[in-house]
TrEMBL record:
Domain of life assignment: Archaea
Name the record gives this protein: S-layer protein
InterPro entries (UniProt xref): S_layer_C, S_layer_MJ
Residues of the S-layer protein outer domain: 49-619
Family matches, as Pfam families: S_layer_C
Species of origin: Thermococcus profundus
Amino acid sequence: MMMKGFMKALALLMGVVFLLSTAGASAGSNYMVPTGLKDISTVPRSFFVNPDGTPNVKIVVGSYARAEDVASAADIAAALGSILYKEEEAKDIAVKLRKASETDVVLQQVVYRYDYDTMTIDHNLPYNSGLINWSKSYDELPADYWYNGAGYTTNYTTWASSFSAQFKVKVGDSVNGNYLYGWDIDIKGLSLSPIDPADWDGTAPPKQADIKIPSRGISVSVDYTLYNYTVVKDEIVREAYPEWGVPEERNVTTESRIGNSAAVEKDNGTIVGVISPGVAAGDEFTLLGIKYHVFSVGANSFTAGEVLGTGWFAQNESKMLGNSRWKITLIGANPLEESAIVTVVDTKTGEIYGPAVLKLGEPTNVVVSGDTIELQLKLEALSENLILGKIAQISGYGDIKTYSSGTEVDYGGQRWLMSVDSDGQYIKGIALTNEDELVGNPLNILNIYTIEYSFEMKSLNEKDVEFDINRDGSITDTSYVVAKATITILENNPKVNELVLSVGDKVPGTDYVVAGFDGVKNLVIRTPTQPLTLLDTEVNFASSGSNYILVGSNRANLLTSMIFGRYHLPTDFRVWFGEYPVLGYIPKCDLLGGKGVIIVAGATPEATRKAATILMQYIAGLS
């Protein structure tokens, strides 16, 4: 009896030695290579992919495979996707040049100007008397050179009380994905809060100052009525050559366009008809870039919520819903009853909500605070996935509430009051005005525009230019100043200009011509049209059309067990050291018609997953 136990232990020990005898051949010895098999580092790219980019391998999962083996097979199949392509010589190539320009200036207004022109034209000062008082320093700059709407002849108090800037933007917001709705923007009551000099007395412009806009000083409105309008375009198609008697030729055309009232006014167009009367219940629209879903429309009010997005969730998977603050975990799903159970975490506060039962197609209010539904979820679809199990498609809306004139909303950390124009069926227009006083330089408005104040003063000496600047009859060693203060409104995001060049085109701004492109290949992606993964019972031994990757130990995969028997490998799983992964390569396996075989195995499913990960990394290195 003792001899029998001794012989069994010896057999196990010999099996271990047999299995490990070539383990040192593996890269870094982070996996075992069974005796008689080659290291996977010798597997060529052609094992996995044909010359035309199509797959040359099947992944075989055992009939008795655990979930981990199935997941390993799926991971390997995904890794193969990175090398399923064919390189071809590229034809009809073009190069795209991209340059980000400076941010567009929406409006620029010189609000104070002191120089020769403003003295002689705006103030009618004569050369031989008024100019002899030309200022020689900042402290001498006069107080009445502020802009009055027509000339530089007013003082700061009058300028600040009458400041007004209006501009229109053609493309700003969308309805159901169509970005055709422009903005009307009106700024009034802008003033300056001096920084330097701190004791500014309101005469000449401060050298440095913050811009101050009072509450209700800015209005941004969007007209959601969409028009079909026409624009008359008058173009010169041939210039005049009067010396030869050739007259100018013009071409007048009428072009049809679509837009809201801001676009019509900006294009100086003529409205032909109404395409859409506004935003209705069920529509999705954006207001200053934030997307809302409209649930109902009332008289000068509407109920809407922010669109948070839609995503697929696997059972026991925790994932953020779009770019929102809500993390959702699917803890159960029943396709037969068309329901799912979820829990929700507010990542902003850490608070947990649920479990909540979602019914297919029915919105469920998960988080409610007062009159606001902070989170509403809707189960859109249910399905079963071979790898992931039960999966659910869930969409969400946030901050659902009723908006009406006087409703306060937050944009970019600033409080704005909303004004709603709706008739019970359509939202016709929405306007926002600032509730808080806005102060800064530069001053950010709604994260869309920036308002800047700048002051510039220069001096010039009569001796340096040998000219009698102040017209007093003599050239002296005296410097005289000019000054200018400006308010500029800019868009926050720079425009990106693109230029596509083909062979033979000249590179703008240079003497170079695009002569050709060296070493450029076109990658033809090959998407598999047949399953890459098979069960061991589905392998056709009589017609082995591809190579094989066998996933799972000999206890889980019948094909692996047959290979082990053919190559006299130990089949007792106890000789496999715990979590140590096993990988081996057979260039030509006579059991499978001479096709190549890779063994991906381990004593446990966890060890097999480690082996699969190592193979995935090797495949990635072949791309």
